[in-house]
Amino acid sequence: MMYKTVAIVLIAIFTGLLMINYAPGIAEDEAEAGQIYSTTRSLMDTTVTVSVLSSDETAAQASIEKAFERIEYVDRLMNNYDNNSELSTLNEQGYLNNSNPDILYVVNRSDHYSESSQGAFDISILPILELWKSKYSPGGTYQDPTPEEINQTLELVNYSAISVEGSNITLENEGMMITLGGVAKGYAVDLAIESLLEDGIESGFVNAGGDGRYIGHKPDGTPWKVGLQNPDRAGEAVVVMNMEDMAVATSGNYERYFNDAARVSHISDPRTGYPSQDLISATVIAETAMDSDAFATAVFVMGEEDGLEMIEDLDNVECLIITSDKRLVRSSGFAEYESTT
User: Is the full-model pTM beyond 0.85?
Assistant: First the structure.
């Protein structure tokens, strides 16, 4: 399952956030602040790093372990390609009674993203993603679905047909299926950060394949530095952001930038059923990783003008867009997070 976006990967892509100097050396005058302890694992189809600033290694490692347990919990719960997950049960039955509170929260919050983006974000997009996947998988035609196939499948895509009453979730149209791939990874990052905070960790971060949330600051008192991958040069940042008690995520299709033959984006527009191809990437800064994750996907689908308009209407949310002609387009408050050093 691809958790970065509400999507299925149809092509090889390289997109996301590049960490810049996230674990600097500790000078003597910074020793009292503690040091950074980090662990990296492969989870949720990506690389996840949990880092904390602490003066107690044993306590730091224990907190890191608990943070990973939260991420594994979300993966078990919300992976629609795991037949044992609650989400798979919902898709198979068309309803889920006495739902897990975390699924209820994520489904309800997803409705906010859909309304804010005029339907550009829609967790009921799974049938469209499965249609495209079937065409570009072994045994498929390796040709785009026909307009008739897309129109027929789009009848199953409708976020307003997801009904939540109490703890019960119902997919009102037969054949509907949902994916939480556009929010689950961000939500997992948020739960991991909450776990760190509960353990008294005041500085650190959780980064899951580009979905990152940062609390406190580095040992020297400066904000965490997060770089956005330059599509022209691997390993180089096109912009560096100061992150302190904020989250950031990127959605994009760098493979299309490198290879014109890669026409099929891994992010589809739930309103049209076709891949989104107007932008190279959309990076969103917000207070939670789930918000930044979802709104980054929404901006990428909506495009430059509509995406920026949505972001400007949201409180404490900023974005940076890389357009298909390589322009960097910033929302009105994005510059406040840019590092000049």
Answer: yes
